[in-house]
Amino acid sequence: MPLLLAYVLLILLWSSTPLAVKWSSEFFAAPLAVALRLSLAALIAVPLVLVIYRDVLFKKNAWKYFAWAALSLFPAMPLLYSAAVWLPSGWIALLYAVSPFFTALVEWVWKGRGLSGKKIVALLLAFSGLLLIFWPVLQFGDVPVWAPLAVLLSALLVSFSGVALTHSPVRFPPLVLSTGALLLAVPAIWLCVLFSGFEWPATVSTRAWSATIYLALGGSLVALMLYFYLLATLSAGSVSLITMITPVVALLLGYWLEHEPLTWYVLGGAVFMLAGLLLLTPWNFGRWFEFYIKQGAVNSTVSDEIRATIDRYK
Questions:
Q1: Locate the EamA domain: which residues (predicted)?
Q2: Smallest Cα–Cα separation from 19: which of 287, 272, 264, 218?
Q3: Lowest mean pLDDT segment, chosen from 26-35, 169-178, 206-215, 294-303
Q4: Where are the domains of the chain?
Q5: Cα atoms in the 13 Å half-sphere on the side-chain side of 41
Q6: N or C, fewer C-beta in 10 Å, the chain?
């Protein structure tokens, strides 16, 4: 799949996911909604992997990497779904926009290197933006404090998972990595459902079912494959930059479809966060050009000239 197409598709899927999560949580309790979503995705993914990549799925030490990938599903997803009951979908997307900052912090801890002044300023801008968005709401007690914290913890787990996978010496096909993560996450979330008290809702709307199926196919299976495909091609920081665009699209979708409030606090906080993301962005598109060159003809004179130019400026 072309890299740019995968990038755009993932932006669209991640932008619509917060609203779909909110719709799915209208009738299903958080653990049950996650369990249904991941189970439906696994029912489709497992047969495909067993036919196409059977040997890869049972490769030695593969499950260690599947466990890293599973962190982005469990417990990250139950935390997100629990908070979705209290938060507008656009706000969830804004909270998830801190993923690049978490990625930078995890990379800092992982590599043991200090943060640059530029990254520290970017982190302060993002933190200021979050305070501006949530301070008025938390002050009047409209939203429990744990709700935004749960989304931030979910984003941290996803960032940690991404960094761990980019530093792993073994590379798996995206479908295999997604399926391995699902096989570990599905039993864990069903245990949570059973221990939390399983209760099937008396009625379920068509919108809730449609959102759950959409999340299973698009939000879990397709998005995971695209995410792991991009991680295998680009750096974790480059992939996490998708969250620069998704909050804006998610805010517009929430305002348009659910009439969610777009207050000056929310817009001002979004500006602060996007400013921090701009500072954090390594505007280096050499990896993109290099990827497309490798896909082209090896003997092309033009490709050779472009590759030589990129090498000079690395």
A1: 5-134, 146-280
A2: 218
A3: 294-303
A4: 3-283, 284-314
A5: 31
A6: C
